[in-house]
Amino acid sequence: MLLGHTDQSINQMIEKREFPIVQPDTRAAAGFMIVEDLKVHEKPTFLQYLRSGWGISLSVAIDYTGSNGDYLNPTSLHYLGGYNQYEQAIRSVGTVLENYDSDKKFPVYGFGGVPRFIPNHMQVSHCFPLNGNYNDPEVYTTEGILQLYRQNLQVSIP
Q: Is 0.85 surpassed by the pTM of this model?
């Protein structure tokens, strides 16, 4: 049940701590709202966020499940006959975010494929480093991600 309402700005609540509540239909007094504690948390802008010393990093996970189709088929998301949808997404996001990453190194994983480029892996894996190094899965730059993606695509789809 709605008892009433009050419309106040943040500045008004900072300056004054007690406000009348009125009934919505009759505008008759319904009580008072007393502000005992007020904290304003401003959301920083993207630029303020970066100026404060924070950075941005990118982690990439590529879906190698068979549902994406054979990389030789033009209807496949992984089609190697042109610039496929995975490459477009990686380039679009990566080229923007790498400018805000201090070392431009990104962990890159695959899932749902057979990482045949990793010794003794002959079955589908749900998480594997695309560079084959479980201790250091990072790849340098967006272009490095794209090169590694193309290099391993042909040997990863089940």
A: no
